[in-house]
Amino acid sequence: MSLEQLWNEALKETEIVRLPVKRLHTFGSSLFEYIFLSPSVVNQGDTVVRKGKIDIDRPALVLANNSASFEGFDSDNSSEIRDDKLTSFFYMRGIRFPSFSYKNEPYEIDVYEGSVARAEKMYSDKIRTNEKIATGIVVGKDSSWQFSVILLGCHMIDTHVDSDLKKILDHIKKK
Question: What residues does each domain of the chain span?
Answer without folding.
Answer: 3-174
